[in-house]
Automatic annotation (TrEMBL):
It comes from the Bacteria. InterPro entries: Cro/C1-type_HTH, Lambda_DNA-bd_dom_sf. Residues 94-122 are annotated as: Disordered. GO terms for molecular function: DNA binding. This is DNA-binding protein. Keywords: DNA-binding. The keyword ATP-binding does not apply. The keyword Cell division does not apply. Residues 104-120 have a biased composition (Polar residues).
Length: 182
């Protein structure tokens, strides 16, 4: 790889970090490991071609162009977390991945019992993910940050909301949500 290609890859990974919270290579590798997938299966569930997945992972491409694919990534991240904490079995995860694969975006799993806590109320993480998904389906993280910067002088609370939910990490958004619920 020559210097120009290395620079372009580094730039793409930095954009991915801004848009998705981390480079897509790291995110996709974690999903592959956590959900017991291979790249071809992950590409199929997401609705991407294998070459497109590879380009996103390697930093040859920066952005996922289809908002439905972005939402599927977020749904798979939620699912991986549920598998890790033991609330979803491997068999259930396989079934849920098939549901995610068929989804066209939107709130595909909101009618299932897996999205709620024992009390029947949506989990904080699910609520936060829905807010993030909605914002990120409307605009890229860079555009959301730009809008937040524009709002900051006159509406700092709205600017913070946009930054945290539109471009931040889910853990930060959960903390923000919880701090504003008390």
């Amino acid at each position: 790889m020559d210097a120009a290609q290395q620079e372009a890859t580094a730039r793409a990974r930095e954009l991915q970090r801004n848009w998705y919270g981390e480079p897509l290579g790291a995110l996709f590798r974690r999903l592959i490991d956590d959900l017991g997938l291979n790249q071809a299966r992950l590409a199929g569930v997401l609705g991407l071609s294998a070459p497109m997945l590879s380009q996103l992972m390697s930093g040859q491409r920066a952005k996922i162009g289809n908002p439905a694919v972005v939402q599927r990534v977020q749904l798979l991240q939620d699912l991986a977390g549920q598998v890790a904490d033991g609330s979803v079995s491997a068999a259930e995860a396989t079934e849920r991945m098939d549901e995610i694969k068929k989804s066209q975006g939107g709130s595909v799993l909101s009618n299932t019992t897996h999205t709620t806590s024992g009390s029947g109320a949506p989990t904080v993480k699910r609520v936060v993910r829905e807010i993030q998904s909605l914002l990120r389906s409307v605009a890229a993280a860079g555009d959301i940050i730009e809008a937040a910067d524009t709002l900051a002088p006159t509406h700092p609370e709205l600017a913070e909301f946009l930054r945290v939910y539109g471009a931040g990490r889910t853990s930060d958004a959960v903390a923000h949500y919880q701090s504003h619920q008390s």
